[in-house]
Amino acid sequence: MAHTARAVEELFGLPFFDLLFEAHSTHRRHFNANEIQISTLLSIKTGGCPEDCGYCPQSRRHHTGVDDEDLLSVDEVVAAARRAKANGAGRFCMGAAWRGPKERDLKRVTEMIAAIRDLGLETCATLGLLRDGQAEQLAQAGLDYYNHNLDTSREFYGEVIGTRTYDDRLETLARVRKAGLKVCCGGIVGMGEDRRDRAGLIAQLAALDPPPESVPINLLVRVPGTPLGEAAGLEPFEFVRTIAVARICLPHSRVRIAAGREGMSEELQALCYFAGANSIFAGEVLLTTPNPKAAADQALFAKLGLKTCASEILEAEATRDPEASRDGDSAPRDCA
Ligand code: SAM
Ligand code: DTB
Ligand code: SF4
Q: What is the pTM of this model?
């Protein structure tokens, strides 16, 4: 279904319970509403990034105390992936503070991907802009997902990022799709954008053809020393509305509460899960900022009767059911 930005903005304006009812009904039609997918994040190359993203503690233009470190070794990353698997993660995501990968670095990342997939984990990488042929190299190594966010609406984008354009990002997303990778693409809210921008972002995500399989919604983590370190923040019900609208407009996608869960109450997270969020990052740090402890997440899941799901892709392969991990299936997806 095509969603114009205006139509999406109208969804935002529904009475809260009407919006939640529609979102939760959509959620149940396409997913098991009691299951959550868990990804673990690792920063494989931290800090010193040449880009100027106004929210990011890893830009070398901002003074945040995040040091410029080298790309980790394959052994270090595989050891972290083993720990993640032991802690119940189904997907292992690697982030690098680059504008985009250099060929030599990409080679090491492809070795990491192959080794992690051998452990029985889905793999995801977020390495910045990709040039021609790089997405294919990642696909060949066995990468499942590539994360590259649009971050906000086209209109608000220039307020936050100056060193690469919205179209640069769309181009990378097209390369990722063309190489046969699954797309993980979302954005950030709470940067001082208005509702129209949040609607514009979701309309743009829903207009990707096909839409992203995975949609991270980051609530800005305000890091002192970044231009957005003192942003006003977002009213919690507006965050729930954003999740709900994303669920309605992207009915087949996994919607993830990405950054920003640290500091959210259990009740707020529960409302987000009811509104259609069905994925999180687990582990005590995201890339450089804190995230809730695994034990706190598990305690909340137990209170809500939520189960975590293992790897959808690898399970589907194991049962030789290639349809199970595809978008567009009409039966609710059950991934445990
Ligand atoms: N350097 C690569 C890039 O930008 O494409 C990959 C890593 S970058 C840190 C991945 C995403 O993290 C960004 O697109 C942004 O959406 C999110 N992010 C970064 N800093 C954040 C913050 N302070 N709060 C919330 N999300 C953040
Ligand atoms: C995404 O959308 N959010 C994650 C992941 N993709 C790479 C990153 C969040 C980073 C939050 C700030 C930090 O920890 O440095
Ligand atoms: Fe660099 Fe990515 Fe941070 Fe932008 S979001 S400054 S590209 S690490």
A: 0.93
